[in-house]
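Risk mitigation, structural track. In case the binding assays with fe (ii) ion fail to produce interpretable data, a predicted complex structure has been prepared as a fallback.
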Amino acid sequence: MALYAIGDLHLSHGIDKPMDVFGGKWVDYMDKLTQGFKVLSEDDLCVMCGDISWGISLEESLEDFRYIENLPGKKILIKGNHDYWWTTVSKMKEFFEKNELKSIDILHNNSFNYDDVAICGTRGWLSDDKLTAQQNAKITARELIRLRASLEAAKDASKILCFLHYPPRLGNIICDDVISLLNEFGVKDCYYGHLHSEGHRLATRGVHDGINYEIISADYINFTPQRVI
Ligand SMILES: [Fe+2]
Ligand SMILES: [Fe+2]
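Fallback model:
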C-alpha cells in the first residue's frame, strides 16, 4: 500500500473542453494520465489536489468520475478553483453512491488516516488582484476555517501531511495565515497544484519556515502521480 498525490487532472470526458489545445505537455494529456496511473496498485491511495473536472455539475462530470473510478486505487478529492461541479459533501457522496463510484471520497473539513499519518487539506487561497482586500480576506478566512477543521480532525496522528490546491507561497505572495496554521499543527509537508506551464517557474519547492513544499500539478509531474509515502 502506498500513498500518491497529483493535482490538476482537468478532465474533460463529458464536455468538449480538453487541455490539449494548450499544446506542449498537455497534448494527449488524458492518455498520459491513464498511462501515469499505472504506477498505482488497487490497494494504493491517491490524493487529487483540485481542478479535477471541467464539468459544471455533478452530472456533467459523471464521465470524468467514471474515468477516475476505473483508475487503480482509492482516490481522495480536494476542490480546485475550476471544480464548478463541487457541491455539498452530502450531495457529492449521495451522487457517488447512486452511480456506484466506490473508490472516490472527499476531503473537506475532515481528514483521512494512512497508517498513523493523517491526510489533511483544503483548496486554500492566494490573494487575487482583481478582488478587493476585503473580498480576499473573506475567502482566506473561510479557507482557514476549513483547514483548521481538517487539521483538528487529525489531532491524534503522529504526522500530518497537508494537501492544498493553491500554493501557500508563490513568488513574493506568501499566505502567512495558512503557513502559521500549518506550523501550529506541526505540519512539515505541504503538497499543492494549480500552477501550470510558465507558472511552474514561480513554484516553491523545498523547505521554507520548517515546511517542505512540493508542486504536484499534473503537467509538472508528467501526468504520473507522485509517491508521497
Ligand atoms: Fe487551479
Ligand atoms: Fe489547474
